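Researcher: Let's do a round of design. I'm pasting the structure tokens now; please hold your answer until I've finished.
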């Protein structure tokens, strides 16, 4: 009788679930946002630069700033001007 009880108990032990519970994936923390504060009256936004009139030494208008160019290191490379006129002729 003890052999039968041992076989029954062994069968119950094999029937138990041995899989580990699946952990739900943890959310990846996002990078903290970068904020800047413009507190100096000399700070300038690009929206205030685009559209400015560019003049030469004789105070003649060369054109308006249409865009701003930066290099790979994010340093100012130059300004792109719109010169107006038809195919660059005229004002």
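Researcher: That's everything. Go ahead.
Model: Designed sequence:
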């Amino acid at each position: 009788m003890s052999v039968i009880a041992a076989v029954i108990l062994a069968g119950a032990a094999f029937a138990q679930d041995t899989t580990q519970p699946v952990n739900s994936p943890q959310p990846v923390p996002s990078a903290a946002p970068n904020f800047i504060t413009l507190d100096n009256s000399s700070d300038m936004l690009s929206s205030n630069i685009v559209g400015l009139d560019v003049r030469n030494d004789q105070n003649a208008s060369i054109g308006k700033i249409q865009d701003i160019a930066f290099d790979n290191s994010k340093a100012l490379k130059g300004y792109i001007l719109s010169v107006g006129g038809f195919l660059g002729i005229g004002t």
